[in-house]
Amino acid sequence: MGMVRYIESNGTVHEIDVKNGTSLMQAAVTHMVPGIEGDCGGACACATCHVYIDPEWRQKCAEMDPLELAVLDFAWDVNEDSRLCCQITMSEELDGITLRIAERQY
User: Are strands 97-101 and 2-7 parallel, antiparallel or unpaired?
Assistant: First the structure.
């Protein structure tokens, strides 16, 4: 288990303990973190869990696969820090990760 810090676009911080093996989207939805919709239930089909990963955490996350990259084409304000948090699974290495929630999900 580890802690994940979600930061809303308005600066509000949510710190949540997440079990290893849980997707960071599912953890956010379970804890009702505003701004993470997860409309597709984690199937990497909707881009409603778009977040920005702080650069120091990017290398600790699994690499983005081609499907995630394609789905991000439908997201707003995509940059090099963009990820879909349904594709990131909690692990010991990610304890303390910070995710900035995109201002718009559609």
Answer: parallel
